[in-house]
Design a protein that fits this description.
With about 675 residues, this protein is an all-alpha fold. It has four domains: about 5-50, no CATH class; about 125-165; about 195-355 and about 370-380, no CATH class; about 395-660, no CATH class. It contains 30 helices and five strands. The chain has helices at about 5-15, 20-25, 40-45, 55-85, 90, 125-145, 150-165, 180, 195-205, 220-230, 240-260, 265, 270-285, 285-290, 295-310, 315-330, 335-340, 345-370, 395-415, 420, 425-450, 460-480, 495-515, 520-530, 535-550, 550-565, 570-595, 620-630, 630-640, 645-650; strands at about 490, 600-605, 610, 655-660, 660. The N and C termini lie far apart (about 110 Å).
Length: about 675
């Protein structure tokens, strides 16, 4: 019995049989299947043969082979990406190199960002109201059974498409008047050696970093990803990404230099720190970073705030903070619903960036007497989660406390020192002060409960602990002192005097620890303690000293002045602060020794000072005493902006004075 023919063999046999030509098919006549066929020869027409399946089979086979090869390449690339994710440092150490001698951040048509930068529109916006109306109509259409329901549903789909099309990420062209301006020349900067960047990444991955225990960023993987995207780009690199990378490397290398780590033996860290700073400055001073809302630009601006504070440039820091706050609001970083739909690796860093900017904004609001860029009524984003690592957790708990304290500082300014707050009735102001005083008391209790036994970097953690005492007592003094601001006069209570005294004592204790530290310098104390503290406790104790003729208060004022003398070289503002405090301290001692009366009436029994109505200048006998003090008259005559009388009058009227000098 002959073997049965398989289907595959039969198809192959039939595929070899010639087919009828196209002309015979059209004329519907029998074709002899020769080439050319007899019918076409007789009709004197071209004979067009149909390609057999065997002719097309190799092409299909080739296509399958090509698809298989493409799949293999994709699988190989995917496995390579996964391998890089598990150990990005090893990936960066591959024999690839930067293709150009310079990295050129600048305008790109559609650069690949770390996360989406969709614009946020609030519930009162036209887009939000349109979406709400669309959902309502769609819900009604689904419940309908008429023939018109399908037409309604199609209209709703078109409406949704229009709504979501408008809700897209902003691009550079949205922030320029002309396309020509947007397509500005790229900025060429000299990159750091790849080996150095790899060494830094390996170091922080193995041993961590003090910088990564701060507020702004704690994700090592994100830093690795930023470096990889800049040094080994597969897409155009936005300016903000390059700028943020050099900002991060600046702080990481600076830390290694300060701590005298082994990395300093292998590389000239001073040179590379300066190079990072130079590259960062080029990027941060571009219009793109300041104007275009994106995650990379917010990170760059936040790092710029820290760098500006390190260089004693508080108003530059405020400029960066305002731009970053605007970016956050445009992108919706202040709303929790953004994070519910954002599952990217940078989601938690967005939280940290927002709350870091919030802390700076609210603190600056009270110190400089300005309204904050953030309003609590529109913020519902949750705090960053606490780390599960017992060494990192205390630092995160301090971050939460910083946010809570910043909120109180904002409420102090808004409710007591703002133009609207100053217009409130005395009783309303008193209730507001008592309410916030209780909030601060609970905050202090929670501060004492933080266990730093297992905290990473215990020496720095201990230094920071004293700083919190200054912040607490300084803020409490500003709060309690607000009761003395009134058009008809007010009083400074004994609680306010005690808070001011404890604030200055904490200041002296903190300076002593900074001064004896082998990690931080006197300039660091000036930039991070004085710039974040209020000038109010010094003035309050000045008033108490001359009212009570207290030698102990005079000595405490002199001790504070001695600490400021060590920081006067940190910047012009600190030189001015030293001169101002030294003038007040000498004036207080002169008035006490001369038994001159103080401002207002002092009640020794209750230890309170009742102040008169707001005045435009110091008492006459104070001004006369200032003219007789050695050295003070020269200071007053040579510096037109150093008007002690006007500063004191402004302070009495409710204007803010920071430790970096009166605003």
């Amino acid at each position: 019995m002959p073997a049965k023919e398989s289907i595959k063999a039969r198809r192959h046999r039939l595929a070899l049989v010639p087919r009828a030509c196209e002309a015979c098919k059209i004329r519907k006549i029998r074709c002899d299947r020769s080439n050319p066929c007899s019918n076409c020869q007789a009709a004197a027409i071209a004979c067009q043969q149909v390609a057999s399946a065997s002719d097309t089979q190799p092409k299909a086979a080739d296509r399958i082979v090509r698809l298989e090869d493409q799949i293999k390449r994709l699988e190989h690339r995917l496995s390579e990406v996964e391998y890089h994710k598990t150990d990005p440092v090893i990936a960066a150490a591959s024999p690839r190199s930067v293709s150009h001698s310079t990295v050129s951040p600048g305008y790109e048509i559609r650069p690949a960002c770390l996360t989406s930068n969709d614009l946020y529109r609030g519930s009162s916006s036209f887009a939000a109201l349109s979406a709400e109306a669309s959902e309502a109509v769609q819900s009604s259409a689904l419940s309908a059974v008429s023939n018109a329901a399908q037409n309604i549903d199609e209209s709703v789909c078109e409406l949704n498409s229009l709504i979501h099309t408008g809700n897209t990420a902003s691009s550079l062209k949205d922030h320029y008047f002309s396309t020509v301006s947007a397509e500005q020349p790229t900025i060429s900067i000299k990159p750091l050696p790849v080996d150095l960047v790899i060494s830094v990444l390996r170091k922080i991955k193995a041993h961590g970093s003090i910088f990564l225990h701060g507020y702004v960023i704690s994700d090592i993987t994100l830093i690795e990803n930023i470096c990889r995207r800049v040094y080994f780009p597969t897409d155009p690199v936005p300016t903000g990404l390059v700028t943020s990378m050099y900002g991060l490397l600046y702080f990481l290398l600076r830390e290694s230099l300060m701590l005298g780590e082994r990395l300093g033996n292998e590389y000239d860290l001073k040179t590379y720190v300066a190079q990072c700073k130079h590259n960062f400055n080029i990027g941060i001073e571009t219009y793109n970073v300041l104007a275009v809302p994106s995650f990379e630009n917010i990170l760059s601006l936040t790092l710029g705030i820290i760098m500006a504070q390190n260089q004693a440039k508080p108003f530059l820091a405020c400029t960066f903070a305002s731009a970053a706050a605007s970016h956050c609001q445009v992108l919706g970083y202040h709303r929790e619903k953004l994070y519910q739909s954002d599952h990217t690796e940078v989601s938690q860093t967005k939280r940290r960036l927002f709350w870091s900017l919030y802390v700076f904004n609210k603190n600056t609001s009270l110190l400089l007497g300005r309204s904050s860029c953030f309003q609590d009524i529109e913020i519902d984003v949750r705090y960053p989660p606490l780390s599960a690592d017992k060494g990192h957790k205390p630092w995160d708990e301090w971050f939460h406390l910083a946010i809570r304290l910043a909120k109180v500082q904002g409420q102090i300014y808004d409710g007591l020192y703002s133009p609207a707050g100053l217009q409130k009735e005395v009783e309303e102001r008193r209730r507001h002060i008592e309410s916030l005083e209780m909030v601060l008391l609970h905050w202090r209790t929670d501060l004492e409960r933080i266990d730093g036994t297992y905290a990473d970097y215990p020496q720095v953690f201990s230094l920071s602990r004293v700083h919190w005492d200054i912040m607490y007592y300084s803020t409490l003094t500003c709060l309690l002192r607000a009761s003395a601001i009134s058009s008809t006069g007010g009083e400074i209570s004994s609680r306010c005097f005690e808070a001011a005294r404890l604030s200055l004592k904490s200041h002296i204790c903190s300076f002593s620890k900074y001064h004896s530290s082998d990690i931080l310098s006197d300039a660091d104390f000036a930039n991070w303690v004085l710039h974040n503290s209020s000038f109010t406790p010094f003035i309050v104790l000045f008033l108490h000293a001359i009212a009570t003729r207290s030698i102990a208060d005079l000595d405490l004022l002199d001790e504070v002045v001695q600490t400021l003398q060590s920081t006067r070289q940190a910047g012009k503002s600190f030189e001015r602060l030293y001169e101002l405090c030294a003038t007040f301290a000498r004036l207080a001692r002169h008035l006490v020794e001369a038994a001159q009366p103080c401002v207002g009436d002092y009640n020794q029994g209750t230890d309170t000072l009742h102040l008169p109505e707001a005045t435009e200048q110091m008492p006459v006998y104070w001004l006369e005493s200032l003219q007789t003090l050695e050295g003070v008259s020269d200071e007053l005559s040579h510096e037109s902006d150093f008007d002690v009388s006007a500063m004191f009058a402004d302070w009495m009227g409710g204007q803010a004075m920071s430790q970096a000098g009166p605003s």
